Amino acid sequence: MKITQTDLPGALVVEPRVFFDNRGFFFETYHRERYGQYGIENEFLQDNLSYSVKNTLRGLHYQQPHAQAKLVQVLSGEVFDVAVDIRIGSPTFGRWAGVILSAENKKQFFIPKGFAHGFCVLSDAAIFSYKCDDIYFPECEGGILWSDPDLGIDWLVKAPLLSDKDGRFPRLNDIPKERLPVF
C-alpha cells in the first residue's frame, strides 16, 4: 500500500496493493490494522454508495457537530474528489486538495474530520463509495458553495449538475464561525 500526504495535513491519498491475474483483480478496500499504521485509525460506522451521471457535482458537504472523517473511492467511472479544510484556527483553513479517483486507478482519498467534501463526475457515470466514522445527522448538515471564489477550486467541469440545496450553500466566509469545526 502506498500513502501520499496531500498539502492538507491528514488528507491522504491511498493506493492499495492490487493483485491482478487472468481472472481479474483483488484488493483490500480497508484493513483496520494496515490503515491504522498510516494514521487512519477511525472506527467507521456508516457506508454510503452513490450513482451519478457525467458532470454531476455533489458538495461541498460537512457536518458540525458530528463531524465525519471519510474514506472514499470510485467503484465505476471517474471523479475529481475535493477536500477543503474548514477548521477555524487551522494553518490551512480555506485551502483545498483534489485527486482523480477512478475504478481504473483504484485510489482512495481519506478526508479527516473538520473538512468539507465534494466531488464531480468526469466519466459518463460513476459509482462512488464512502465510509464515514459517524452517522448522518440531517440537523448537523452544512455546506459551502461549490463555486466559492475565495476557494478557487477548478472542478474540471464547466456546467455542473447540482442539487437545489448544493446550489444555495453560502460561501465559506459567510458561515458563522460557531457553525464550523475548530482546529
Chain-wise SSE layout:
Layout: E1 2-5, E2 12-15, E3 19-21, E4 24-26, H1 32-36, E5 46-53, E6 57-63, E7 70-76, E8 78-85, E9 96-102, E10 108-111, E11 115-121, E12 125-132, E13 141-143, H2 164-168
Antiparallel strand pairs: 1-2, 2-10, 3-4, 5-12, 6-11, 6-13, 7-10, 7-12, 8-9, 8-11
Question: What do you see in this structure?
Answer:
The protein is mainly beta and 183 residues long. The protein has a single domain (2-179), classed as Jelly Rolls (Sandwich), CATH 2.60.120.10. It is 5% helix and 40% strand. It has two helices and 13 strands, in the order ββββαβββββββββα. It has helices at residues 32-36, 164-168, and strands at residues 2-5, 12-15, 19-21, 24-26, 46-53, 57-63, 70-76, 78-85, 96-102, 108-111, 115-121, 125-132, 141-143. The strands form three sheets. The protein has a six-stranded antiparallel β-sheet with strand order 1-2-10-7-12-5, with no helix packed on it. A five-stranded antiparallel β-sheet has the order 9-8-11-6-13, with no helix packed on it. β1 and β2 (12-15) form a beta hairpin. The longest helix is centred in the first third of the chain and has 5 residues, at 32-36. The chain starts with a strand and ends in a 15-residue tail after the last helix.
